[in-house]
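Before relying on records like the one below, remember that each one covers exactly one chain. Contacts with other chains, cofactors or solvent are not represented anywhere in the record.
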Amino acid sequence: MLLITVNGIVIRERQCGENDKFIDIMTDKCGLMEVFVRGARKITSKNASSAQLFAYSKFCLSKRRDRYCIDSAEPIKIFYSIRQELDKLALASYFAEVISYASMLEENRYDEILRLLLNVFHYLSEGTREIKFLKSIFELRFMTEIGNMPNVLGCAECNMYSAEKMYFIIENGTMYCSSCFSQHKKCTAVSINDPVLHAIRHIVLADFNRLFNFRLPEISSDTLAYISENYLITHIGKTFKTLEFYKTVVK
């Protein structure tokens, strides 16, 4: 019998019979893992708190045949408040669906993705950052961590670092200054000002300890939200039902 120990967040759960369930855990070492939890729905279950939705726990897992099962678990942080407010629950569910789908992509940086999710869940739980702000950070940084970082270091033609107005092309993740963009007018682009440009650069390039340390005016925040969402959907190549639900909740 193989035993492994991982830290991870439960991002999905599915009932199995009366008392058991399967959970999907985003882990630091093995990426997304499907795990069987025996007796999880019983009041006396010793693993109930550790295996609940959006719990961050230390799991000792045993592998029997082709299935991982919880041998023991210890909760590290229970993000219970996320489940108490519908807008937070909807956004967390969207993050979970994105991660579940992208887990099929190879060579993901599992530890960095888990760290991103932990940070976003922390601020979402504490309510110290706007939901739209957290959504944009997750989308752009997640795409960066799975190898789809947009090229925002400068104009793709002349390498100009910044201008009064720049244009970001979502389809190929490149940016042009006003002069160079005249040659690419057939492309669908978003006009961005300096605050939005600096925000995108910060999200994709900053260390984690500084990632959430910036602010944007509301009008710039709307532009960032449009770019981040459409960049993720375009380059992953999929729409998400949880995103549509989130939009109905936050209207």
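Helices lie at 86-102, 110-126, 131-145, 178-181, 194-205, 218-236, 241-250.
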